[in-house]
Write a structure and sequence with these properties.
The chain has six helices and no strands. By secondary structure, it is mainly alpha-helical. α1 packs parallel to α5.
Length: 142
Amino acid sequence: MSGLTPFYDLASCTKAVVTAPLALEFLDLEKDRREQLGFEGDFAREEPLTVRDLLSHSSGLPPWLPYQKGLSVPQTIGGFKRWGEHALLRKGDPLKSVYSDMNFRCLAQLLEMDTGKKYHELAVKRGLPYRPWDGDTQVPIF
């Protein structure tokens, strides 16, 4: 690696620093969450989808898709038509470990569903920053 400078996406680190501890505290790691997250009907998937899959990036979800407020993750994936226009805009491969921002979106959604509290309320109560992909919030830099 001579002459190369390491590059890190701090926003991605923030998602993990905030979401993972909350998921471990509040969510069942082994329960299948396909139906709860909307992976049914037109958006059905064969493989189970657990919190453990989401945390370990083995969910098979795409690496990243532009955040669209009001759309579930399955709706975002199912409605996306611009695959391949960027290295991150590629379909996921179930049961393969690939970093995916979509995992954290699902975890935040599950946290809200299971606790009945807003994600940012849970984060603030523990002194953690808000979800980084929500343009309505300010994310502190560590």
